[in-house]
Amino acid sequence: MIPDLFTNHGIGQRESMAEQAVILRGFALDQTDDLLRQIFALQAQAPFRHMLTPGGFRMSVALTNCGALGWTTDRRGYRYSPTDPNSGAPWPDMPECFRQLACQAAEAAGFAGFEADACLLNRYQPGTRLSLHQDRNERGFDAPVVSVSLGMSATFLFGGLRRSDPARRFLLHHGDVAVWGGQDRLRYHGVAPLKGPPHPTLGEQRLNFTFRRAD
Fold first, then answer.
1. How far is residue 165's CA from residue 169's CA, in Å, rounded to a whole number?
2. Residue 177 and residue 22: Cα distance in Å, rounded?
3. Left, alpha or beta for 137 (phi > 0: left; psi -120 to 50: alpha)?
4. Taking Cα atoms as reference points, which of 101, 51, 39, 112 lies closest to residue 76?
């Protein structure tokens, strides 16, 4: 495992965000070597890119995908697609270590039997942010969302079922996994502008990959 020189942030503990939403502290730490190797291989096939929102704004967060379906956005709207719009080729297969981590984290959070068919990878750099939003482009909402953080620590915003509801703030560190589903599946969430010290291995970036059941 690549050593994490940051302070021990409650590794092995569970932190509740809501009734059916939890942060599993350090849950992915013992897998980071394999995860990073797979991410570097995936971006060689489907590079990170800054997509346009339906309103024509360039997203500050760079993204790519793996799995049977990939999340995309352009002036036509938000949607899932089986192909990379940049190349026309299918998205890279989801690595087995990704699939297993998603399943294990979901089960640890109380959602047994989760099988992801989509994995959205986001790359944050200092100053980039993700505004409050709901994940609702999936066909159904019975499966949870599993979100893995690597690299710089980030402030995760977890709100309510309305955009105007106040959002709680949680620090997510290298190796943490957040899971939300059930009655909390459609809560608004986002990421505050990334700031703070660089990660000793990944430098000034945060890699976040989020597993969903899209179809």
1. 13
2. 8
3. alpha
4. 51
Structure tokens at 36: 């990073």
Q: Tokens 């990878």 — which residue?
A: 121
Give DSSP secondary structure letters for 24-93.
Answer: ETTTTGGGHHHHHHHHHHHHHHS--B-PBPTTSPBPSSEEEEEESBEEEEETTEEEEESB-TTTSSBPPP
**Inter-helix orientation angle 96-108/32-45, to 10°:** 130
Angle at 67 between CA 64 and CA 69, to 5 degrees: 80
pLDDT of the chain along its 215 residues, tens only? 333 444 467 888 999 999 999 999 999 999 999 999 999 999 999 999 999 999 999 999 999 999 999 999 999 999 999 999 999 999 999 999 999 999 999 999 999 999 999 999 999 999 999 999 999 999 999 999 999 999 999 999 999 999 999 999 999 999 999 999 999 999 999 999 999 999 999 999 999 999 999 99
Using DSSP's 3-state secondary structure scheme, residue 103 falls into: helix
The CATH code belonging to domain 27-212 is: 2.60.120.590
Q: 195, 1 in Cβ contact below 8 A? A: no
- The answer to whether the predicted template modeling score (pTM) of the entire model surpasses 0.85 is yes
Torsion of CA 161, 137, 185, 12, to 10 degrees: -130
